[in-house]
Amino acid sequence: MMTKSLKLAIIGGGSSYTPELVEGVLKRLDILPVTEMHFVDIEAGKEKLEIIEGLTRRMVEKAGANIEIKASLDRRAAIANADFVMTQFRVGGLQARANDERIPIKYDVIGQETTGPGGFAKALRTIPVILDICKDIEELAPNAWMLNFTNPAGLVTEAIQKYTQVKSIGLCNVPVSMQMMIAEMMACPPEKLSLECIGLNHLVWAHRAWVDGQDVTAEVLKKVGDGQNFSMNNIFEEPWDPDFLNALGAIPCPYHRYFYQVDAMLAEEKESARDGGTRAEQVMKTEAELFELYRDEELAEKPKQLEMRGGAYYSDASLNLVDAIYNDRKTIHVINVANNGTISSLPDEAVIECSAVVGSWGVRPLAVGKLSPAITGLIHQVKAYEQLAIEAAVEGSYNKAFMALSSNPLVPDITRAKAILDDILRTNHDYLPNFA
Amino acid sequence: MMTKSLKLAIIGGGSSYTPELVEGVLKRLDILPVTEMHFVDIEAGKEKLEIIEGLTRRMVEKAGANIEIKASLDRRAAIANADFVMTQFRVGGLQARANDERIPIKYDVIGQETTGPGGFAKALRTIPVILDICKDIEELAPNAWMLNFTNPAGLVTEAIQKYTQVKSIGLCNVPVSMQMMIAEMMACPPEKLSLECIGLNHLVWAHRAWVDGQDVTAEVLKKVGDGQNFSMNNIFEEPWDPDFLNALGAIPCPYHRYFYQVDAMLAEEKESARDGGTRAEQVMKTEAELFELYRDEELAEKPKQLEMRGGAYYSDASLNLVDAIYNDRKTIHVINVANNGTISSLPDEAVIECSAVVGSWGVRPLAVGKLSPAITGLIHQVKAYEQLAIEAAVEGSYNKAFMALSSNPLVPDITRAKAILDDILRTNHDYLPNFA
Amino acid sequence: MMTKSLKLAIIGGGSSYTPELVEGVLKRLDILPVTEMHFVDIEAGKEKLEIIEGLTRRMVEKAGANIEIKASLDRRAAIANADFVMTQFRVGGLQARANDERIPIKYDVIGQETTGPGGFAKALRTIPVILDICKDIEELAPNAWMLNFTNPAGLVTEAIQKYTQVKSIGLCNVPVSMQMMIAEMMACPPEKLSLECIGLNHLVWAHRAWVDGQDVTAEVLKKVGDGQNFSMNNIFEEPWDPDFLNALGAIPCPYHRYFYQVDAMLAEEKESARDGGTRAEQVMKTEAELFELYRDEELAEKPKQLEMRGGAYYSDASLNLVDAIYNDRKTIHVINVANNGTISSLPDEAVIECSAVVGSWGVRPLAVGKLSPAITGLIHQVKAYEQLAIEAAVEGSYNKAFMALSSNPLVPDITRAKAILDDILRTNHDYLPNFA
Amino acid sequence: MMTKSLKLAIIGGGSSYTPELVEGVLKRLDILPVTEMHFVDIEAGKEKLEIIEGLTRRMVEKAGANIEIKASLDRRAAIANADFVMTQFRVGGLQARANDERIPIKYDVIGQETTGPGGFAKALRTIPVILDICKDIEELAPNAWMLNFTNPAGLVTEAIQKYTQVKSIGLCNVPVSMQMMIAEMMACPPEKLSLECIGLNHLVWAHRAWVDGQDVTAEVLKKVGDGQNFSMNNIFEEPWDPDFLNALGAIPCPYHRYFYQVDAMLAEEKESARDGGTRAEQVMKTEAELFELYRDEELAEKPKQLEMRGGAYYSDASLNLVDAIYNDRKTIHVINVANNGTISSLPDEAVIECSAVVGSWGVRPLAVGKLSPAITGLIHQVKAYEQLAIEAAVEGSYNKAFMALSSNPLVPDITRAKAILDDILRTNHDYLPNFA
């Protein structure tokens, strides 16, 4: 990278996570010469954006850093000449997420933000918007790297890579959280632990784990089966059956509970929806409280309470990636990237989540070859759903949308698939112009 | 083929289907010089075997054919020097099948003879026995072709091809039944209809249909969606949603209802189990009646009542295959055969069900290449289950059995998978020495 | 096929082969209701075209057939509403072929019409013209089948399939000639012999041969090694080393001599070029004599002398294909078709030459899977050359042309590759507008 | 890695290169706790081994290092409990290499130590010996890493991985030499240059080059075409045609001259063989001089003259690999490793040379996906040759040996292939017991 100063554009900058990102930038000033951060949001998020602008300006000032903070509704200005574009927006806001969670459980189907019908609805809303953003990047910052955090990150990244020329990497905090939790279990520093991660976004397995070159996979599986902490604070921590982990022979991610432990997870969701509210409804409260804190003109740092919000390590995951690219680190990151033969039975253009080396020249996944049948069936099933969902979103095709939901392993029956699809299309009508 | 006379060995010869097979042989005497049919069965089936022996001898005599009918419990004698070995046995008899149907529905899971946990239990019981038979064939009739009708035919054929040197073809009456039903729908002679069939056994789609070179796929889908007959008499005829067929763009087989229309099929199964008995329990009655008829010393032909039994076209499907091999017909048949690149994302050794050319030199599938995502997810999911189930059966591995059931798309949850597995292992204890 | 009458358009109809094609049509009037044959050619071939028109009209009349013979320079009129379009033209005529043969041998490299630098030059001249023809077919006869005989048939067919929507099949008389010669060797009727043919055009092997279901591959190899006739009358019959055939384990086609027996073939070519003239120069004489015969107003049948011309079985090969499509025969033909997984290590869109089933719905290759390393290296090398040559021809790219020739296994050195390329471009200047 | 001290076993320890390896170990004492180096050789090399033992003991002593130097003819003692086993032996010594160089040029074919028929002969001699060594490692040091330098390194490593359980990595100094030479061309420190290396051993291309994240591939190709130094001191530096480099679009390795510039390289070889002696014959002199120096009891360091010998960077390449494994560096090295989908059209078990990440858990190649046709043809052709050569060596099969040589792109004709093969088998009779 030749530039001596870095401009970051953050789409959806009014997010409550933003202070964590700024904190991460401030921690890395010696290695990342960030001189401009441009937060952009839409009209509906204007108030939050202004609160974020104030807080992050105070943070920068307190740190004595030479970073210009900009906040605007002008996406094109934010993108122009950016070195990195980060996306963390949510079409329809938390209310749309609450719908994504509530609609499926009406039909006795998992209602979750990123997997199952909920993730599907989110994909339909998000993909057209992100492709629009990419057009701006192609025009205004063709050399920029786009780091996509927007969920469902795998689907969205695949859409970007299939339909645009933008250099993009999909990013998720699940793999880094697994790294941290397993390191804690094994009582070793995180950098001593190596994980071979392969799968799809929110469907990633650590196929093997090593500490100091010793294969500790069986030990980790035993600890997970014994009930050691292995969840993230937005997923209900249903315990894992030790026999199942043993049979699987790979370390599932927390989201795998939705695929393997359907009964318990659905029961818990229905109970939550009835009692305390769905996860989105809980987050609405947290968010309101956070923004109340952020308003405080005395506050000039990320408040502790943000950690309860759920996006642990997002800031580190993304800024370590910026570091790897900018400083040509050639370090291993778990990211979402086009398959290109990494998993031999999947198409080249399918986006997978896997361990990859990142340097100034981009991303190269570590080759995997054949996967065990315990893994390959589920990956293919979910990838087929994803391909159909992307095409449905881009083409506004009812047929492909119906087939996508019918192919989703969390939707057990086509009659329910159709009822859920019709409900989603009705409820999200305003956010789905392609389906009008 | 150099031989001028043909010996057929039929393992499980005491089956109620046998008269249909003999009728088929008698119809083809001008093209197939069968001179010996050796029916073999086990001690428990001795009485039925003797009834079959009597009836088929009378049939041969009436036809004035020069065929020696043998019936014995001596499998090795039956196999020795056979030109074709046909398998149609059922380990554990109809009672085991009734268990296969009843156990899963206790856990709100599809209970079916060949798919889901029922088919899995049948595979565990059957595979070790069939591999044993293959050892005899390798020794006593190494040039024989084995035509395997034994369900689950895809799984069993894959086991044979992976673990033995026997030349085998898996066979099912579903594709030929689809050919007949669609031809009837289109009001054309069956030979004018061409179907491009690809999938797995009991999970096969007709991807395209032509009459006289015209693509009639959409028309067929419309007729099936309009409720024209498209079921077989052992599968409940739940109507297909026309929108779904349209979205799928391929003609599903009758068994696909268990995968796509889970709710309705399960509801019907539970009702039947409560009221009239499961399918196996109904068949027990039919069988008793059939054998009562067969005993009749006056009877010298296949009685009409056999057609209600469910195995339509089995005799034609298998004897047409014998004809294609013996007479080097190079005709297209839908059979179960090792993939070898036919579907490019599946392993070479995976057995698939597809259109293939059959001649005296054996079988060659018609290449397919990439499948649409609407198909590929389900195929991979079921094939992964099948691979695990085969290994579980051969190795007696609890882990692989657990993982197999957990990977089966009809089993929605690992907790239920485990409960069902334990129930299956307990109930089938006597037939599963590998798991002792 | 719904049409009750067939129109054939023959591009390059002024060829000396045309009477054989007409003879073939006349032999098949009971199964192919041909009512129109439209021969089209270019200005330079006008005289020959008129001679052909006269002779073929007399042939039709003598046979009492109801076929309208048309001959014109109006390609669009010929193509409009045709059921089959057959191409058999030669850009630059026999003089261009003579150049193709003479240029390489100046550099001690095989000079041959369809392989090596000669075939490359022919591809550069032919591909732009054939893509132009395809545009007419797309517009004027979108349902027509195009049967491409134009060499290099594999390359040309791949170009058609990559760059147009035309339904096309590439066709060559080599496989059918192998079938005839091997049947003669084995003293059996051709229809009793089954060959498993796989490879590329003019680089096709019969991997196995069966007579009556018995594998006779070793026996055929022995006979070929013992010197039994296994050549075609345009290829020098250099004897095969029996040890090599044994090591190869597959039956090479006559053209394989150019790849395996380079030294002897090159020596013979140089001698011929010095003494009797290259193959093209010999053919020029034969052609002149043939057209002298054709002029004879008394002649109303294909003269015997045509057989020496070299294209044995072309008429049968193509009309049997027309029959298979029109009458939905579902018979096996060896044709050039997109790979689609047939050979698993080649790209889906690579055109291969292989055994395939042909019916009214089109063509489906017989799956092959993995090839032995004795075969796979050469196939990949030649296919890489072909891909580069096609792109060079379409794009007029010097770089790709240079890389294509450098990748051709008959060109041993890049310095010679460049010299030959420059010579080809200079000599063919008038026929290569893309390279102007 | 748990061990706190490292034992290195060096098979072929009497090599003149050994002092460089010891120098490398002494430079890395702070990161690699080597406490024992055991050099082993065969009876014929005893004198050289003793000279090496003396010199390296003096080197260790001078450095004040705590390393036990052992030298013996007892291979099993050397291997027992080794952490790393390094192989650098030469079956038949330099005389065998001289034969490898002289035999092919008798037939106007490239005579080279590692490619073409010379490399083939070396593979036949070496593979049985290395598989024998692997049996000892499996028994006596099952956790050891084997670093194989023995040429032809790709072939030999593939044999090890196919036929043994030993953890092995094949290693070559070509990629590191390319890194050094290109960095010098670009006037940047080597660590600033990133190369994407993919191919086979001695047939590896740098597909892209970056300095500081800028793609400089075209610039490097231009410099190489302009005649900047890009050779190694055992390969004749025939200049590259700039147009060819441009067409190729990838940076060839020095050995590619044997494949692309056959005429010039062969001419130079014939001239050398006639005048100064083949490369082996020159090396014999250098070796004699080196050992004369090594004998000197005053010498306690690697003499400068060793650098002329030809194995530049071997010591660094291998010890950096030891470091990456022992210290879990997760750094990128270009090594020989099983493909496992890295290049999607090659078999999983084919050993390729490519950029890979190396850590304490082993090696993981960086995924590549599809290669351009300019590359893929040659790779497949050479890999097919390699597969056949390995099987020939292991099975002692004349047929496979004949087919291997016939498939080698440097052998243009099967008649010459056979003559060369027979010459090789005769000349190497004593070293090829499998072919006796």
Automatic annotation (TrEMBL), chains A, B, C, D:
It is an enzyme of class 3 (hydrolase). It holds the Pfam family Glyco_hydro_4. Binds 1 NAD(+) per subunit. It comes from the Bacteria. Keywords: Glycosidase, Hydrolase, Manganese, Metal-binding, NAD. Residues 197-411 form the Glycosyl hydrolase family 4 C-terminal domain. Its cofactor is NAD(+). One of its GO terms (molecular function) is 6-phospho-beta-glucosidase activity. InterPro entries: GlycHydrolase_4_CS (IPR019802), Glyco_hydro_4 (IPR001088), Glyco_hydro_4_C (IPR022616), Lactate_DH/Glyco_Ohase_4_C (IPR015955), NAD(P)-bd_dom_sf (IPR036291). Its EC number is 3.2.1.86. Belongs to the glycosyl hydrolase 4 family. This is 6-phospho-beta-glucosidase.
